[in-house]
Design brief:
alpha/beta; two-stranded parallel ribbon
Length: 191
């Protein structure tokens, strides 16, 4: 599963017939280490961003094989999406192996797009107020693909087949964070 928007983990968790204790949400940091989140933790993570290689709200995962009997959502972008394009997937630490997992990708398109990308400086209350008071038509479309193996290129292609543009390898979490900084103060900070 790929972290393509804010509500994906919450949507998938609430629509799953399994109990929430069987659901695990994993998000890599820029170094490729996986952090585990609860659905509420994912929501909170969505309203923060950091240039560091650690995650304060998630729990570092050392061994994914312990998660084999759970429903695992792996968000390979490591950040929120604008629901129009997809950032390069973060290369995972070599200690993680998904060879014994059933691999599927879930491509979800939300309309309107503002569901997908809360700017980190917007409060959760402001975000929910906008969601509740906007009376425009809302819809969710999704497609699921099954894979025989954990092949990043094939998984990524399933998103490209569904009108999510693949972004350059130069665009990553760090460049996205710089853009957000610029968005708020319109200055370019030099180190």
């Amino acid at each position: 599963w790929v972290f393509s928007f804010l509500l994906s983990g919450t949507f998938s968790s609430s629509s799953s017939s399994s109990s929430s204790s069987q659901i695990v949400i994993l998000i890599p940091n820029e170094s490729g280490d996986l952090y585990q989140y609860s659905p509420l933790g994912l929501f909170n993570h969505s309203f923060t961003y950091s240039n560091s290689n650690s995650s304060s709200s998630g729990k570092l995962v050392e061994d994914v094989s312990k998660l084999q009997n759970k429903i695992v959502f792996l968000f390979l972008e490591g950040t929120l999406s604008n629901n129009k394009s997809i950032l390069p997937f973060i290369k995972l630490n070599s200690k993680y192996s998904f060879d014994d997992f059933n691999i599927k990708s879930l491509v979800v398109k939300l309309i309107p797009n503002y569901f997908t990308l809360p700017i980190p400086h917007v409060s959760k209350l402001q975000y929910f107020f906008e969601l509740l008071t906007n009376l425009s038509q809302k819809s969710v479309r999704y497609k699921m693909y099954k894979f025989d193996e954990f092949d990043i290129a094939k998984i990524r292609n399933s998103f490209e087949l569904n009108s999510l543009t693949s972004m350059s390898q130069d665009l990553n979490i760090d460049s996205k964070n710089k853009f957000i900084d610029y968005y708020f103060d319109h200055s370019i900070k030099k180190n």
